[in-house]
Design brief:
Layout (H helix, E strand, L loop, with lengths): L7 H56 L1 H4 L7 H12 L9 E6 L13 E10 L12 E14 L5 E3 L8 E3 L4 E5 L3 E3 L7 E3 L4 E4 L2 E3 L3 E3 L4 E4 L6 E3 L22 E7 L2 E6 L2 E3 L5 E2 L3 E4 L10 E4 L4 E4 L2 E4 L7 E4 L10 E4 L5 E5 L9 E5 L7 E5 L2 E5 L1 E13 L11 E3 L5 E3 L2 E3 L2 E11 L3 E4 L8 E6 L2
Parallel strand pairs: 4-7, 4-32, 5-8, 5-32, 6-9, 6-33, 7-10, 8-11, 9-12, 10-13, 15-18, 16-19, 17-20, 18-21, 19-22, 20-23, 21-24, 22-25, 23-26, 24-27, 25-28, 26-28, 27-31, 28-32, 31-33
Antiparallel strand pairs: 1-2, 2-3, 3-34, 14-15, 29-30
Helix pairs in contact: 1-3
Protein backbone atom coordinates (compact mmCIF):
# COMPACT_ATOMS: atom_id res chain seq x y z
CA UNK A 1 0.00 0.00 0.00
CA UNK A 2 1.11 3.41 -0.68
CA UNK A 3 1.25 5.82 2.33
CA UNK A 4 0.39 9.55 2.38
CA UNK A 5 3.17 11.86 1.10
CA UNK A 6 5.29 13.60 3.77
CA UNK A 7 4.64 17.37 3.38
CA UNK A 8 5.88 18.47 6.80
CA UNK A 9 9.27 19.54 5.47
CA UNK A 10 7.75 21.67 2.73
CA UNK A 11 5.43 23.37 5.19
CA UNK A 12 8.40 24.37 7.37
CA UNK A 13 9.91 26.29 4.40
CA UNK A 14 6.70 28.18 3.71
CA UNK A 15 6.40 29.27 7.33
CA UNK A 16 9.89 30.71 7.29
CA UNK A 17 9.09 32.72 4.18
CA UNK A 18 5.79 33.96 5.60
CA UNK A 19 7.46 34.99 8.87
CA UNK A 20 10.17 36.87 6.98
CA UNK A 21 7.66 38.71 4.82
CA UNK A 22 5.39 39.43 7.76
CA UNK A 23 8.29 40.71 9.86
CA UNK A 24 9.30 43.11 7.12
CA UNK A 25 5.75 44.42 6.88
CA UNK A 26 5.56 44.69 10.67
CA UNK A 27 8.80 46.68 10.83
CA UNK A 28 7.46 48.89 8.05
CA UNK A 29 4.31 49.61 10.06
CA UNK A 30 6.44 50.38 13.12
CA UNK A 31 8.62 52.67 11.00
CA UNK A 32 5.58 54.53 9.69
CA UNK A 33 4.09 54.82 13.16
CA UNK A 34 7.18 55.81 15.12
CA UNK A 35 9.17 57.74 12.52
CA UNK A 36 5.99 59.29 11.10
CA UNK A 37 4.99 60.56 14.52
CA UNK A 38 8.44 62.00 15.12
CA UNK A 39 8.39 63.66 11.69
CA UNK A 40 5.06 65.26 12.54
CA UNK A 41 6.56 66.70 15.73
CA UNK A 42 9.56 67.96 13.78
CA UNK A 43 7.24 69.53 11.18
CA UNK A 44 5.36 71.40 13.89
CA UNK A 45 8.64 72.63 15.35
CA UNK A 46 9.89 73.75 11.95
CA UNK A 47 6.61 75.50 11.22
CA UNK A 48 6.67 77.35 14.54
CA UNK A 49 10.23 78.51 13.85
CA UNK A 50 9.34 79.57 10.30
CA UNK A 51 6.34 81.54 11.59
CA UNK A 52 8.47 83.25 14.24
CA UNK A 53 11.18 84.14 11.71
CA UNK A 54 8.61 85.47 9.24
CA UNK A 55 6.99 87.62 11.93
CA UNK A 56 10.42 88.97 12.92
CA UNK A 57 10.98 90.01 9.31
CA UNK A 58 7.50 91.60 9.20
CA UNK A 59 8.28 93.68 12.30
CA UNK A 60 11.38 95.12 10.61
CA UNK A 61 9.51 95.75 7.35
CA UNK A 62 6.86 97.59 9.37
CA UNK A 63 9.41 99.61 11.34
CA UNK A 64 11.25 100.68 8.19
CA UNK A 65 8.15 101.13 6.03
CA UNK A 66 8.15 104.95 6.11
CA UNK A 67 11.65 104.90 4.63
CA UNK A 68 11.70 101.77 2.46
CA UNK A 69 8.01 101.30 1.53
CA UNK A 70 8.12 97.58 2.28
CA UNK A 71 11.41 96.83 0.55
CA UNK A 72 14.26 95.24 2.52
CA UNK A 73 16.74 97.75 1.14
CA UNK A 74 19.47 97.11 3.72
CA UNK A 75 18.73 93.43 4.34
CA UNK A 76 17.74 94.13 7.95
CA UNK A 77 14.47 92.20 7.78
CA UNK A 78 16.06 89.10 6.27
CA UNK A 79 18.86 89.17 8.84
CA UNK A 80 16.40 89.48 11.72
CA UNK A 81 14.51 86.47 10.41
CA UNK A 82 17.72 84.42 10.34
CA UNK A 83 18.75 85.62 13.80
CA UNK A 84 15.33 84.74 15.23
CA UNK A 85 15.47 81.26 13.74
CA UNK A 86 18.97 80.71 15.15
CA UNK A 87 17.83 81.78 18.60
CA UNK A 88 15.12 79.13 18.33
CA UNK A 89 17.62 76.40 17.47
CA UNK A 90 17.81 76.49 13.67
CA UNK A 91 21.55 75.95 13.16
CA UNK A 92 21.40 76.89 9.47
CA UNK A 93 24.37 74.69 8.53
CA UNK A 94 22.61 72.83 5.73
CA UNK A 95 23.25 69.55 7.54
CA UNK A 96 20.96 69.53 10.55
CA UNK A 97 18.78 72.51 9.56
CA UNK A 98 18.52 75.41 7.14
CA UNK A 99 16.64 78.71 6.75
CA UNK A 100 16.02 80.60 3.51
CA UNK A 101 14.49 84.09 3.49
CA UNK A 102 13.08 85.74 0.36
CA UNK A 103 11.99 89.39 0.49
CA UNK A 104 9.86 89.79 -1.55
CA UNK A 105 8.56 86.18 -1.92
CA UNK A 106 9.67 84.14 -4.91
CA UNK A 107 6.51 82.04 -5.08
CA UNK A 108 2.83 82.05 -4.22
CA UNK A 109 0.18 84.77 -4.52
CA UNK A 110 2.46 87.44 -2.99
CA UNK A 111 5.37 86.78 -5.34
CA UNK A 112 7.35 89.95 -5.99
CA UNK A 113 5.17 92.14 -3.74
CA UNK A 114 6.73 94.68 -1.38
CA UNK A 115 6.15 94.37 2.40
CA UNK A 116 5.93 90.55 2.27
CA UNK A 117 8.56 88.10 3.58
CA UNK A 118 8.81 84.41 2.64
CA UNK A 119 10.66 82.05 5.01
CA UNK A 120 11.58 78.39 4.51
CA UNK A 121 12.83 76.35 7.46
CA UNK A 122 14.13 72.84 6.79
CA UNK A 123 15.16 70.19 9.33
CA UNK A 124 17.16 67.13 8.24
CA UNK A 125 15.94 64.28 10.42
CA UNK A 126 17.99 61.15 11.15
CA UNK A 127 16.02 58.00 10.39
CA UNK A 128 14.93 55.51 13.03
CA UNK A 129 13.10 52.34 12.02
CA UNK A 130 12.76 53.68 8.50
CA UNK A 131 16.42 52.85 7.89
CA UNK A 132 15.07 49.70 6.27
CA UNK A 133 14.23 51.94 3.30
CA UNK A 134 17.38 54.07 3.22
CA UNK A 135 19.99 55.86 5.32
CA UNK A 136 19.76 59.43 4.04
CA UNK A 137 18.21 62.02 6.42
CA UNK A 138 14.61 63.00 5.80
CA UNK A 139 14.09 66.68 4.91
CA UNK A 140 11.16 68.32 6.70
CA UNK A 141 10.49 71.70 5.05
CA UNK A 142 7.96 74.36 6.03
CA UNK A 143 7.10 77.72 4.51
CA UNK A 144 5.63 80.87 6.06
CA UNK A 145 4.79 84.24 4.52
CA UNK A 146 4.26 87.42 6.54
CA UNK A 147 3.49 91.05 5.90
CA UNK A 148 4.67 94.20 7.66
CA UNK A 149 3.33 97.52 6.39
CA UNK A 150 1.65 100.82 7.08
CA UNK A 151 -1.46 100.97 4.95
CA UNK A 152 -4.43 103.25 4.75
CA UNK A 153 -7.67 101.68 6.04
CA UNK A 154 -9.97 101.65 3.01
CA UNK A 155 -12.85 103.58 4.53
CA UNK A 156 -13.85 107.21 4.19
CA UNK A 157 -15.99 107.16 7.33
CA UNK A 158 -15.95 104.72 10.25
CA UNK A 159 -18.48 105.24 13.06
CA UNK A 160 -17.19 103.24 16.04
CA UNK A 161 -20.17 103.25 18.44
CA UNK A 162 -21.80 99.82 18.68
CA UNK A 163 -25.33 100.60 19.85
CA UNK A 164 -26.31 104.28 19.63
CA UNK A 165 -29.31 105.52 17.72
CA UNK A 166 -28.28 108.00 14.99
CA UNK A 167 -24.63 107.09 15.32
CA UNK A 168 -24.47 108.64 11.85
CA UNK A 169 -26.88 111.55 11.93
CA UNK A 170 -27.40 113.80 8.89
CA UNK A 171 -29.59 116.91 9.13
CA UNK A 172 -29.76 120.23 7.31
CA UNK A 173 -30.12 121.05 3.65
CA UNK A 174 -26.82 120.07 2.13
CA UNK A 175 -25.23 116.98 0.67
CA UNK A 176 -22.40 114.98 2.15
CA UNK A 177 -20.35 113.44 -0.64
CA UNK A 178 -17.69 110.84 0.11
CA UNK A 179 -15.56 109.66 -2.80
CA UNK A 180 -12.94 106.95 -2.94
CA UNK A 181 -14.04 104.63 -0.12
CA UNK A 182 -17.12 103.32 1.74
CA UNK A 183 -18.98 104.65 4.76
CA UNK A 184 -19.07 102.18 7.68
CA UNK A 185 -21.47 102.41 10.66
CA UNK A 186 -20.87 99.91 13.48
CA UNK A 187 -24.00 100.62 15.54
CA UNK A 188 -26.46 97.72 15.70
CA UNK A 189 -29.37 100.05 16.50
CA UNK A 190 -32.43 99.79 14.26
CA UNK A 191 -31.91 103.50 13.51
CA UNK A 192 -28.12 103.45 13.43
CA UNK A 193 -28.08 105.82 10.45
CA UNK A 194 -30.52 108.73 10.29
CA UNK A 195 -30.95 111.08 7.33
CA UNK A 196 -33.57 113.79 7.79
CA UNK A 197 -34.64 117.14 6.38
CA UNK A 198 -33.15 117.65 2.94
CA UNK A 199 -29.86 115.98 3.73
CA UNK A 200 -28.36 113.64 1.20
CA UNK A 201 -25.55 111.18 1.92
CA UNK A 202 -23.60 110.11 -1.13
CA UNK A 203 -20.84 107.48 -1.13
CA UNK A 204 -19.59 104.54 -3.12
CA UNK A 205 -20.98 102.08 -0.54
CA UNK A 206 -22.62 102.03 2.88
CA UNK A 207 -21.99 99.20 5.36
CA UNK A 208 -24.35 99.50 8.33
CA UNK A 209 -24.47 96.94 11.15
CA UNK A 210 -27.93 98.08 12.28
CA UNK A 211 -30.71 99.81 10.37
CA UNK A 212 -31.53 102.94 8.44
CA UNK A 213 -34.11 105.64 9.24
CA UNK A 214 -35.07 108.21 6.60
CA UNK A 215 -37.47 111.11 7.07
CA UNK A 216 -38.46 114.21 5.12
CA UNK A 217 -36.35 114.32 1.98
CA UNK A 218 -33.38 112.62 3.61
CA UNK A 219 -31.71 109.98 1.47
CA UNK A 220 -28.72 107.73 0.95
CA UNK A 221 -27.30 107.48 -2.56
CA UNK A 222 -24.46 105.32 -3.87
CA UNK A 223 -22.39 106.26 -6.88
CA UNK A 224 -21.17 105.26 -9.42
CA UNK A 225 -23.08 101.98 -8.79
CA UNK A 226 -26.61 102.34 -7.41
CA UNK A 227 -28.08 100.47 -4.43
CA UNK A 228 -24.80 99.62 -2.70
CA UNK A 229 -26.33 99.95 0.78
CA UNK A 230 -25.68 96.88 2.94
CA UNK A 231 -27.40 96.36 6.28
CA UNK A 232 -26.55 93.81 8.98
CA UNK A 233 -22.84 93.87 8.24
CA UNK A 234 -20.19 92.89 10.76
CA UNK A 235 -18.67 95.83 12.72
CA UNK A 236 -15.24 97.12 11.76
CA UNK A 237 -12.80 97.57 14.67
CA UNK A 238 -11.01 100.88 15.10
CA UNK A 239 -8.12 100.65 12.60
CA UNK A 240 -6.11 103.23 14.58
CA UNK A 241 -6.56 101.62 18.01
CA UNK A 242 -2.93 100.43 17.95
CA UNK A 243 -1.54 103.94 17.42
CA UNK A 244 0.00 105.30 20.64
CA UNK A 245 -0.95 108.82 21.65
CA UNK A 246 1.87 111.30 21.05
CA UNK A 247 4.14 111.98 23.99
CA UNK A 248 4.15 115.42 25.56
CA UNK A 249 6.42 117.65 23.45
CA UNK A 250 8.33 120.69 24.59
CA UNK A 251 6.38 123.94 24.83
CA UNK A 252 5.70 125.66 21.55
CA UNK A 253 6.10 129.37 20.98
CA UNK A 254 3.51 131.85 19.76
CA UNK A 255 4.25 135.28 18.36
CA UNK A 256 1.58 137.93 17.79
CA UNK A 257 1.56 140.84 15.34
CA UNK A 258 -1.25 143.42 15.21
CA UNK A 259 -3.11 143.60 11.90
CA UNK A 260 -5.30 146.57 12.81
CA UNK A 261 -8.97 146.85 13.73
CA UNK A 262 -8.29 144.67 16.74
CA UNK A 263 -7.16 141.67 14.69
CA UNK A 264 -3.94 139.74 15.17
CA UNK A 265 -1.65 137.47 13.24
CA UNK A 266 -0.56 134.52 15.40
CA UNK A 267 2.38 132.35 14.40
CA UNK A 268 2.75 129.07 16.32
CA UNK A 269 5.58 126.56 16.26
CA UNK A 270 4.81 122.87 16.91
CA UNK A 271 4.79 122.00 20.63
CA UNK A 272 2.67 121.98 23.76
CA UNK A 273 0.05 124.68 24.41
CA UNK A 274 -2.44 125.42 27.17
CA UNK A 275 -5.27 127.97 27.15
CA UNK A 276 -4.79 129.35 23.66
CA UNK A 277 -6.65 132.55 22.82
CA UNK A 278 -9.85 132.40 20.79
CA UNK A 279 -9.08 133.11 17.13
CA UNK A 280 -11.76 135.28 15.54
CA UNK A 281 -12.88 136.61 12.17
CA UNK A 282 -10.13 138.81 10.76
CA UNK A 283 -7.37 137.04 12.65
CA UNK A 284 -4.73 134.97 10.88
CA UNK A 285 -3.26 131.85 12.47
CA UNK A 286 -0.10 130.37 10.97
CA UNK A 287 0.89 126.85 12.08
CA UNK A 288 4.49 126.14 11.24
CA UNK A 289 5.10 122.73 9.71
CA UNK A 290 6.89 119.63 10.99
CA UNK A 291 10.32 120.47 9.63
CA UNK A 292 10.61 123.71 11.61
CA UNK A 293 11.53 122.03 14.90
CA UNK A 294 11.99 118.63 16.58
CA UNK A 295 8.41 118.08 17.74
CA UNK A 296 7.24 116.33 14.59
CA UNK A 297 4.67 118.91 13.54
CA UNK A 298 2.41 118.15 16.52
CA UNK A 299 0.44 120.93 18.20
CA UNK A 300 -0.34 119.31 21.55
CA UNK A 301 -3.27 121.13 23.16
CA UNK A 302 -2.93 120.33 26.86
CA UNK A 303 -6.17 121.89 28.07
CA UNK A 304 -8.22 124.84 26.87
CA UNK A 305 -9.05 123.50 23.42
CA UNK A 306 -8.48 125.09 20.02
CA UNK A 307 -11.16 127.64 19.05
CA UNK A 308 -11.29 129.41 15.70
CA UNK A 309 -14.46 131.23 14.72
CA UNK A 310 -13.91 132.58 11.23
CA UNK A 311 -10.14 133.08 11.44
CA UNK A 312 -7.86 132.35 8.52
CA UNK A 313 -5.73 129.31 9.37
CA UNK A 314 -2.74 128.48 7.22
CA UNK A 315 0.37 126.34 7.31
CA UNK A 316 3.58 128.29 7.48
CA UNK A 317 7.13 127.72 6.43
CA UNK A 318 8.75 124.31 6.18
CA UNK A 319 7.42 120.95 5.08
CA UNK A 320 5.81 117.88 6.61
CA UNK A 321 2.31 119.15 7.46
CA UNK A 322 0.72 119.57 10.89
CA UNK A 323 -1.37 117.64 13.42
CA UNK A 324 -3.51 119.13 16.19
CA UNK A 325 -3.76 116.74 19.15
CA UNK A 326 -6.37 117.75 21.73
CA UNK A 327 -6.20 116.47 25.31
CA UNK A 328 -9.12 118.03 27.21
CA UNK A 329 -8.68 118.45 30.95
CA UNK A 330 -12.43 118.13 31.64
CA UNK A 331 -15.70 117.64 29.76
CA UNK A 332 -16.66 121.31 29.39
CA UNK A 333 -17.37 122.87 26.02
CA UNK A 334 -14.32 125.11 26.42
CA UNK A 335 -12.05 122.08 25.90
CA UNK A 336 -13.18 121.27 22.36
CA UNK A 337 -11.54 121.71 18.98
CA UNK A 338 -13.70 124.11 16.97
CA UNK A 339 -12.66 125.29 13.53
CA UNK A 340 -15.27 127.38 11.73
CA UNK A 341 -14.67 128.84 8.29
CA UNK A 342 -15.71 132.30 7.16
CA UNK A 343 -16.84 133.50 3.70
CA UNK A 344 -14.05 136.10 3.75
CA UNK A 345 -11.40 133.81 5.18
CA UNK A 346 -9.35 130.75 4.32
CA UNK A 347 -8.61 127.49 6.06
CA UNK A 348 -5.89 125.41 4.39
CA UNK A 349 -4.38 122.61 6.47
CA UNK A 350 -2.85 119.22 5.67
CA UNK A 351 -2.01 116.34 7.97
CA UNK A 352 1.47 115.03 8.65
CA UNK A 353 3.31 113.51 5.70
CA UNK A 354 5.75 111.17 7.48
CA UNK A 355 6.31 109.19 10.66
CA UNK A 356 3.85 107.08 12.66
CA UNK A 357 1.20 109.81 12.47
CA UNK A 358 1.28 110.16 8.72
CA UNK A 359 -2.06 111.43 7.44
CA UNK A 360 -3.37 112.60 10.83
CA UNK A 361 -4.77 116.14 10.87
CA UNK A 362 -6.97 116.41 14.01
CA UNK A 363 -6.83 113.87 16.83
CA UNK A 364 -8.62 114.01 20.16
CA UNK A 365 -7.63 111.93 23.17
CA UNK A 366 -9.48 108.60 22.84
CA UNK A 367 -10.78 108.80 26.43
CA UNK A 368 -12.40 112.22 25.99
CA UNK A 369 -16.10 112.65 25.25
CA UNK A 370 -15.83 116.34 24.34
CA UNK A 371 -17.36 117.00 20.92
CA UNK A 372 -15.23 118.12 18.00
CA UNK A 373 -16.66 120.72 15.58
CA UNK A 374 -15.50 121.56 12.05
CA UNK A 375 -17.59 123.92 9.92
CA UNK A 376 -16.69 124.66 6.35
CA UNK A 377 -17.39 128.05 4.86
CA UNK A 378 -15.61 130.21 2.34
CA UNK A 379 -12.32 128.85 1.06
CA UNK A 380 -12.02 125.79 3.28
CA UNK A 381 -9.68 122.88 2.60
CA UNK A 382 -8.58 120.38 5.24
CA UNK A 383 -6.72 117.22 4.21
CA UNK A 384 -6.09 114.26 6.49
CA UNK A 385 -7.87 112.12 9.06
CA UNK A 386 -10.13 113.52 11.78
CA UNK A 387 -10.01 111.08 14.70
CA UNK A 388 -12.23 111.23 17.81
CA UNK A 389 -12.69 107.65 19.00
CA UNK A 390 -14.54 108.62 22.19
CA UNK A 391 -16.61 111.56 21.02
CA UNK A 392 -19.02 112.95 18.44
CA UNK A 393 -17.52 114.63 15.42
CA UNK A 394 -19.74 117.46 14.17
CA UNK A 395 -19.18 118.49 10.54
CA UNK A 396 -21.21 121.28 8.94
CA UNK A 397 -21.03 122.65 5.43
CA UNK A 398 -22.20 126.20 4.82
CA UNK A 399 -20.67 127.07 1.47
CA UNK A 400 -22.62 128.13 -1.63
CA UNK A 401 -24.50 125.31 -3.33
CA UNK A 402 -27.63 124.78 -5.38
CA UNK A 403 -30.44 122.45 -4.39
CA UNK A 404 -29.87 118.88 -5.47
CA UNK A 405 -26.34 119.59 -6.63
CA UNK A 406 -24.34 116.50 -5.67
CA UNK A 407 -21.25 117.34 -7.70
CA UNK A 408 -19.97 119.99 -5.32
CA UNK A 409 -20.63 122.92 -7.68
CA UNK A 410 -22.97 125.85 -7.84
CA UNK A 411 -23.85 128.05 -10.82
CA UNK A 412 -23.14 131.76 -10.49
CA UNK A 413 -25.11 134.62 -12.05
CA UNK A 414 -23.21 134.35 -15.34
CA UNK A 415 -23.96 130.64 -15.62
CA UNK A 416 -20.42 129.57 -14.72
CA UNK A 417 -19.95 126.36 -12.77
CA UNK A 418 -18.09 127.14 -9.55
CA UNK A 419 -16.74 124.73 -6.96
CA UNK A 420 -18.90 125.58 -3.95
CA UNK A 421 -18.45 122.72 -1.50
CA UNK A 422 -16.26 122.58 1.57
CA UNK A 423 -13.48 120.02 1.49
CA UNK A 424 -13.48 118.93 5.09
CA UNK A 425 -10.81 116.28 5.49
CA UNK A 426 -10.04 112.97 3.82
CA UNK A 427 -11.34 110.54 6.45
CA UNK A 428 -13.53 110.55 9.57
CA UNK A 429 -13.06 108.01 12.37
CA UNK A 430 -15.16 108.84 15.40
CA UNK A 431 -17.53 107.39 17.96
CA UNK A 432 -20.46 109.24 16.35
CA UNK A 433 -20.78 111.59 13.39
CA UNK A 434 -23.27 114.44 13.05
CA UNK A 435 -23.55 116.15 9.66
CA UNK A 436 -25.41 119.42 9.16
CA UNK A 437 -25.43 122.87 7.62
CA UNK A 438 -26.84 124.25 4.41
CA UNK A 439 -23.94 123.59 2.07
CA UNK A 440 -22.21 120.60 0.55
CA UNK A 441 -19.44 118.77 2.36
CA UNK A 442 -16.95 116.84 0.30
CA UNK A 443 -14.74 114.17 1.82
CA UNK A 444 -12.18 113.06 -0.75
CA UNK A 445 -10.55 109.82 0.38
CA UNK A 446 -7.11 108.97 -1.01
CA UNK A 447 -4.60 106.51 0.41
CA UNK A 448 -1.96 109.23 0.42
CA UNK A 449 -3.87 111.66 2.65
CA UNK A 450 -5.16 109.52 5.52
CA UNK A 451 -3.76 107.88 8.65
CA UNK A 452 -2.07 104.52 8.43
CA UNK A 453 -3.07 101.33 10.17
CA UNK A 454 -0.53 98.73 11.27
CA UNK A 455 -0.25 95.38 9.53
CA UNK A 456 2.07 92.81 11.09
CA UNK A 457 0.64 89.39 10.33
CA UNK A 458 1.12 85.97 8.79
CA UNK A 459 -0.65 85.59 5.45
CA UNK A 460 0.46 82.05 4.53
Amino acid sequence: MYGKPNTRKARRGIVVVLVAVGLTALIGVVALTVDGGMLQLDYRKARAHADAAAMAAACVLYKEYPTNAGKDTDGNAAQEAVNTAKRNGVVNDGVSSKIVVNIPPLSGPYQGKASYAEVYVTYYITRGFSRIWGSAPIAVETRSVSRGAWVAPKAGVIILDYDDRAALNAQGNGAFTETGAPVIVNSNNASATVSAGNSQLIAEEFYITGGLALSGNGSLVTSPVADQIFLGTHPTPDPLAYLPAPSMPMDGSMTKVALGKGNQQYTLTPGRYTNLPNFNTGDTVILQQASTNDTGGIFFIDGGGFHSTGATILMGTGTGGVMIYNRPTDISNSQKVQITGNPAGTVALSGLTSGPYTGMALWQDRTSTVDMLVEGNGNFSLQGTLYAAGATLNVNGNGKTSAGDVTGYYVDGAGAKIDGSSRIASQYISKNLALGGNGNVRLNYTDQNVARTRIITLVE
